[in-house]
TrEMBL record, chain A:
Protein's name in the database: Sugar ABC transporter permease
UniProtKB/TrEMBL annotation, chain B:
Lineage: Bacteria, Bacillati, Bacillota, Clostridia, Lachnospirales
Lineage: superkingdom: Bacteria
Organism of derivation: Candidatus Epulonipiscium fishelsonii
Protein name as it appears in the record: Sugar ABC transporter permease
Length: 276, 296
């Protein structure tokens, strides 16, 4: 029995290692390619796997061509503003939807559900026209704009408040708290983990979003990482060391953040319910 | 003032309730609810050259969409993509989740690695796969000594794209399933072990049925988002790629018409088609949920 168990466990590890390698190989290839010369990447006989010399020329050229500091700054600003707006509005609304009874609540909640049901692309043309009429194309505000409120976030926070016990509020009421105080001092602090989950979800969604930044942003001073990379691909079609170097520079910060805050990431994603 | 009198308590809740939901509601109405109607409205108009002028044409755009072979082809492409991406990614993710849902060495490391593509910018994913699959200088063709035009053969390009999609989404699905598995009480498995059920058996007789709400839910959300596939195709397929017409998705066409060609009317019509498809799937979900899914 024991022997069989350990055989089983080896088998499981083999499967997991194969899958992990499949996941990692493209990343490894990205790293290896970024240190090669162009001629090494174009050599097939013999095929070059490891660069002869680890050259950092591609990184230097790419850093000169693209101002990564500005790109990081713009991406970070977009993500931060979206997180702040989303978390505040969703916490407030989530509490009201979960715990208060008032006229118009059901109608308002129906609007939240409708937003979650329709494909996001249906909002894009009018959102673009709004931004363009306000003369705000190529601004950070334009990047933040569609992510200022989150129907999904409202839904998530509503669930969080619904799972809290009722007597907390009653105790607060007896102590003389009004609804605002009860929310701010008693209830909101208890949903911190859901707020973190929403924050992470919002950050990932904003980081990976490609279409909206491409639509409202063509200026390199306000561009974000995702669309800048997309644009770069069009310019350096065959210089793969440079393309891979740029991809690496754009990817590594998020990977580091993910590895450090892994637990929160996994929890945040687990609550997203496939909405990403 | 109101026909029904509200007690001070009710008045109080009414006031606070609206204060709390107002920011979200204003945002939703301006950013989402009105735009839905505007997009539908737009789909009855013809946009002039260079995005200038807006002429009411009634159902003309819809007639054009239904007669447009490019749109039909993009629908077929989208379905082909979804039919590979959704089931394959869900099956693999399910097995991985079941394997990782136990105390074992390296659990966190495996989970971290498998999730890695989810925190990578789509443009970077597309670029590296283009390079790995490059027919002349790519890793795959040179290592295995084959000569496959992974991304430019119109017959297979869409499936290649779907497999890249699988690669990038497995980790996400796995996390969703792991969350679902946490809710299955451990004593179910203990009882099964006592009854002599091995790993395989308990997978099919306990994990799958008890996870069915989660599986079903992930299926539906994955189908809906596979219908919206864009980034991957946009980034991997060049304008000059001979397989482009056999891979471009519905949302790709939407983007191309609306924002590259500024033909907002036709773009809006295409996205309304997507809306209808999505709503049909959602309706099926609501109906089927009552029938098939095993709830604890």
């Amino acid at each position: 029995m024991e022997k069989e168990k350990s055989k089983m466990s080896i088998f499981i590890h083999i499967i997991l290692i194969i899958v992990s390698l499949t996941m990692l190989i493209p990343f490894c290839w990205m790293i290896l390619t970024s240190f090669k010369t162009v001629s090494e990447t174009m050599q097939v006989d013999p095929f070059v796997i490891f660069p002869k010399e680890w050259k950092i020329d591609a990184f230097i050229t790419v850093m000169k061509e693209m101002n990564f500091l500005i790109l990081y700054k713009n991406t970070l600003l977009m993500i931060l503003f979206r997180i702040i707006c989303c978390v505040i509005t969703a916490t407030l609304a989530g509490y009201a939807f979960a715990r208060l009874n008032f006229k118009g609540k059901n109608f308002a909640f129906t609007l939240v559900l409708i937003q979650m049901m329709v494909p996001v692309q249906i909002f894009l043309i009018p959102q673009y026209l709004m931004i363009s009429k306000m003369g705000l194309l190529n601004t950070t505000f334009a990047l933040v704009f569609p992510g200022m409120v989150s129907a999904f976030g409202t839904f998530l926070l509503r669930q969080a408040y619904m799972s809290l016990p009722k007597d907390l509020e009653e105790a607060a009421k007896i102590d003389g708290c009004n609804i605002g105080q009860t929310f701010l001092f008693i209830m909101a602090p208890l949903t911190r983990s859901s707020m973190v989950a929403l924050g992470i979800f919002t950050a990932l969604f904003a980081f990976k979003d490609l279409m909206w930044p491409m639509i409202v942003n063509s200026n390199k001073d306000t561009m974000v990482l995702s669309s800048a990379l997309a644009k770069m691909q069009g310019q350096y079609v065959t210089d793969y060391p440079e393309l891979m170097a740029a991809s690496l520079i754009a990817t590594i910060p998020m990977i580091i953040i993910y590895v450090v805050f892994q637990k929160q990431f996994i929890q945040g994603i687990a609550t997203s319910g496939g909405k990403l | 003032m109101k026909s029904k009198k509200m007690s001070p308590q009710q008045k109080n809740e009414f006031m606070w309730g609206w204060i709390f939901i107002l920011p979200t509601l204003i945002g939703l109405v301006i950013l989402n609810i009105i735009p839905i109607f505007q997009t539908i409205y737009q789909s009855f108009f013809k946009t002039g050259d260079f995005g200038r002028g807006n002429k009411f044409v009634g159902l003309d755009n819809y007639m054009k969409v239904f007669a447009d072979e490019e749109v039909w082809q993009s629908l077929i492409n989208t379905f082909k993509y979804a039919i590979v991406e959704v089931p394959v990614s869900i099956c693999i993710a399910l097995v991985l989740a079941a394997l990782l849902n136990r105390k074992m060495k390296g659990r966190t490391i495996y989970r971290t690695i498998i999730f890695l593509p989810m925190v990578t910018a789509p443009a970077a994913i597309a670029m590296v796969w283009r390079w790995v699959l490059n027919s002349k200088f790519g890793l795959i063709n040179n290592i295995f000594g084959v000569d496959v035009q992974w991304l430019s053969d119109p017959k297979i390009a869409v499936y290649t794209l779907a497999l890249i999609g699988v690669w990038s989404i497995i980790g996400y699905n796995m996390i969703l399933f792991l969350a679902g598995l946490q809710e299955i009480p451990a004593d179910y498995y203990e009882a099964a072990t006592i009854d002599g059920a091995t790993g395989m058996k308990s997978f099919f007789y306990i994990t799958i049925p008890l996870l069915s709400p989660s599986i079903f839910f992930v299926c539906i959300t994955r189908i809906i988002s596979a219908l919206q596939v864009f980034d991957l195709i946009f980034m991997v397929m060049d304008k000059t790629n001979p397989a482009l017409s056999k891979t471009q998705s519905l949302v790709y066409l939407f983007y191309d018409y609306s924002f590259a060609q500024k033909n907002l009317g036709y773009g809006a019509t295409i996205v309304v088609v997507l809306l209808i498809l999505t709503l049909i799937i959602t309706a099926i979900q609501m109906y089927a949920q009552k029938k098939w899914v095993f709830y604890n």
